[in-house]
Write a structure and sequence with these properties.
heterodimer, A: about 325 residues, mainly alpha, two-stranded antiparallel sheet, B: about 260 residues, alpha/beta, Rossmann fold, 6-stranded mixed beta sheet, 10 helices
């Protein structure tokens, strides 16, 4: 059979498992980018370290469960607190710097976290990563509690939807987090607190001259962003069923920025839609059959996503849901 | 030079020094501003007026010297804390928050809004909303006074240069200051708007006893609208007194025109 150029296989529309994975990935990126939106879109601080916060959250949770024997459900809030504290620790010295220096510091921070995880093998398992603890009589894994909660639910769903994918419970949890996150962030954004944040974005000196402790607001913004980073770190760990340094490379943060730019600055809704679009585009193109080798198709996917972002910048720089006035007047 | 024995001084500055590298931008300047007065700060370009403003309001830290506001030392305090004490400044280049509506610019400046703390946003939403209603009313009243009422919902970035100056003054008033420091309030605005700005200053002084310190280059404004004039040159105060005294001071003439030799 001769291959048609640019044909799309029907598998693209019927593969439930594949698309469940894409939607979970998109949801994880939506969660992590919500924090980025708060920082970049509403506070004017350019945070290039979201992958680092994801890693701190994920590793802390897994270490607490596997090494300290703490319950998964308690380990998560503790890991969120640790990640937020870490964010404040990073922000205290660096948020006094100019925006571009702060960006460099956060990027470096994320890499320090990743490389530390790679080398602190006693605690993190090095490149093998963390999943289960085989030392005890009974093997414990960090997602045991998650599975024992969601497996009965999954069986119940299978009763009337036999084709359901095992990722379904995670998919629901991730997107519930996205929806709640969007509502919560939109709520606090409309309060006087959110107004001060916007003022910091517009002109920090003007805000200080009106009696606002701008460093405090930037720290809070970063801490909340770190919280969303930690949450997405948990979801990524549950999705991959392992925590490895490679999953927290700077490219993760840059994908999140792609989502941010696609959805538009200063719109939380745009983050969710941008995440779905970016990942549908990236993953959906696996099904486009081109008369070239698979590796080349894989490379082409990223080139095409890049092209989409370039066209977006050229013709709709505010993104899909950003406000053009705010973009033009803000500068 | 600071007159600490005089209880009527709201602001007293003494021996302020600020170096940038080898340059002494402010070199031991000192003066005081009486409560309820309008004081002009003048001097040739590079005399250190704007740097002095930054030092007084905490935007820069002095190398030495003291700044006392209402009897309290504020020289090492951060800018936001000084503003909260009631000494509020405007900037030479207006700092309208361009991508925010005019009304939000105003409401931002209101003090004692519990909703600016995240904790209260979550735990005391009713107190936040009640204060927000008060603040909105005050903001709308002030916009009315300054002739900006119909611009309330426009982005501040769409205002003309003169309107931005008015907005910045109105916004500073929302902060309920006891003293206002205006850096070149008349620069770049048309005479009609300038007139209105001066009327507002005189009214606020006489009706509310507000204290003003302003930097200005327009000598007509300085001579006719201030109680006292302070003249700076090369980082020091070279003369201070009533407008007619200062005008006749040979040191002032020298500073502006250059002394022979």
């Amino acid at each position: 059979m001769t291959e048609l150029p640019l044909a799309i296989t029907f598998e693209a529309f019927t593969n439930v498992g594949f698309w469940s994975g894409v939607l979970v990935t998109a949801g994880i990126y939506a969660v992590v980018t919500l924090g980025l939106q708060l920082n970049v879109g509403y506070t004017g601080i350019v945070n290039f370290g979201q992958a680092g916060f994801m890693a701190v959250g994920g590793y802390t949770m897994a270490i607490l469960v596997l090494e300290a024997g703490i319950s998964f459900w308690l380990a998560m809030p503790l890991a969120v607190l640790v990640t937020m504290a870490f964010g404040i620790l990073i922000g205290l010295p660096s948020l006094r710097l100019r925006a571009d220096y702060f960006a460099i510091v956060t990027l470096a921070m994320a890499e320090v976290v990743r490389l530390s995880a790679q080398n602190a093998q006693g605690l993190t398992g090095g490149n093998k990563g963390l999943y289960c603890n085989f030392e005890g009589v009974e093997q414990t894994c960090f997602d045991d509690a998650w599975k024992s909660l969601t497996n009965p639910f999954l069986e119940w769903v299978e009763g009337f939807w036999p084709d359901v994918d095992p990722l379904f419970p995670l998919l629901l949890a991730v997107w519930a987090t996205v929806v709640v996150g969007i509502f919560a962030l939109n709520y606090i954004q409309r309060t006087p607190w959110g107004r001060v944040l916007r003022a910091v974005r517009e002109d920090e000196d003007a805000a200080r001259a009106l009696g606002k402790n701008t460093l405090l607001y930037k720290l809070q913004s970063l801490a909340i962003s770190a919280m969303f980073g930690a949450l997405s770190g948990f979801f990524l760990a549950l999705f991959l069923t392992t925590i490895q340094p490679d999953d927290y490379e700077p490219i993760v943060t840059f994908y999140a920025f792609g989502v941010l730019v696609l959805g538009g600055l200063a719109s939380y809704k745009g983050v969710a839609i941008g995440a779905v679009l970016l990942w549908t585009l990236l993953e959906g193109m696996r099904f486009v059959e081109l008369p070239i080798t698979e590796e080349r198709t894989a490379a082409l996917r990223f080139a095409l996503v890049g092209l989409v972002l370039i066209l977006l910048m050229a013709f709709r720089p505010q993104g899909l849901f950003g406000k053009k006035e705010e973009m033009v007047l803000g500068r | 030079m600071a007159a600490e024995d005089n209880g009527r001084d709201l602001l007293a500055i003494d021996g302020i020094v600020k170096r940038f590298g080898g340059i002494r931008a402010v070199d031991g300047a000192g003066f005081s501003v009486a409560a309820g007065s309008v004081t002009a700060l003048i001097g040739p370009n590079g005399a250190g007026k704007t740097t002095l403003f930054n030092l007084i309001t905490g935007f820069e830290q002095p190398d030495s010297g003291s700044v006392r506001f209402d009897g309290e030392e504020v020289a090492k305090q951060p800018a936001y804390a000084i503003a909260r004490r009631g000494m509020v400044r405007t900037f030479q280049l207006t700092r309208a928050l361009a991508a925010m509506p005019v009304l939000d610019n105003m409401m931002l400046a209101a003090p004692e809004q519990p909703g600016e703390r995240l904790r209260n946003v979550l735990l005391r939403p009713r107190a936040v909303r009640a204060r927000e209603r008060e603040v909105r009313e005050q903001a709308e009243e002030l916009l009315e006074v300054f002739g900006l009422r119909e611009k309330a919902d426009d982005y501040a970035g769409t205002l003309s240069g003169g309107q931005r100056k008015l907005l910045e003054l109105a916004r500073a008033l929302m902060a309920r200051p006891r003293m206002l420091l205006l850096d070149e309030p008349m620069a770049g605005i048309n005479p009609t708007l300038g007139r209105r700005l001066l009327d507002h200053i005189q009214r606020l002084r006489s009706e509310e006893g507000m204290t003003f310190l302003f930097v200005e280059h327009d000598m007509e404004v300085v001579m006719n609208h201030s109680d006292r004039v302070i003249v700076m040159a090369e980082g020091r105060v070279i003369a201070a007194g009533e407008p007619h005294q200062v005008r006749a001071d040979p040191a002032v003439v020298d500073a502006y025109l250059g002394s022979p030799a």
